[in-house]
């Protein structure tokens, strides 16, 4: 009888352990796509990147993210809350840039700036950002490349990263 009781007790513990471990395993190995805004640097140089977006409190620009050659960085973690995002990037070695027609504020050092008007009067610089319409996707990826675009400028492409 003792043997049967011990065997029954072992089975009960094994069942409890199984029920605790299996859900943790499936959560840990889940391959769900992560939602975020990523920038990939497909060049051979270090690139500095700034991003602009509309928050609940108004326009915000943030930077600088330093992205090494042939790597990616996440600028905004989690599902995107805006449809439009704006990007400005500079090649720190060759001096080129990826820009656009939308003027926003930047600074020499790390920054998070509220508002996009009167940049110079407020002690910042003004830079032209390129607009990305994410179509309200949960995540987005922009790839910076050396390839010239049709207008002769460096190409910047954005895609839904799911």
TrEMBL record:
InterPro entries, A to Z: DUF1036
Domain of life assignment: Bacteria
Pfam families membership: DUF1036
Record protein name field: DUF1036 domain-containing protein
Organism lineage string: Bacteria, Pseudomonadati, Pseudomonadota, Alphaproteobacteria, Hyphomicrobiales
């Amino acid at each position: 009888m003792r043997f049967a009781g011990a065997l029954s007790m072992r089975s009960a513990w094994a069942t409890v352990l199984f029920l605790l471990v299996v859900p943790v395993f499936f959560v840990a190995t889940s391959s769900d796509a992560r939602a975020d805004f990523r920038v990939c640097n497909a060049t051979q140089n270090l690139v500095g990147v700034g991003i602009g977006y509309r928050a609940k409190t108004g326009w915000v620009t943030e930077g600088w993210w330093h992205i090494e050659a042939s790597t990616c960085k996440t600028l905004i973690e989690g599902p995107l809350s805006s449809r439009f995002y704006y990007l400005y990037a500079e090649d720190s070695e060759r001096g080129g840039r990826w820009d656009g027609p939308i003027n926003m504020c930047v600074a020499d050092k790390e920054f998070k700036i509220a508002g996009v008007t009167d940049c110079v009067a407020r002690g910042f610089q003004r830079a032209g950002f390129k607009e990305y319409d994410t179509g309200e996707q949960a995540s987005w990826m922009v790839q910076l490349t050396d390839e010239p675009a049709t207008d002769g400028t460096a190409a910047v492409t954005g895609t839904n990263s799911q």
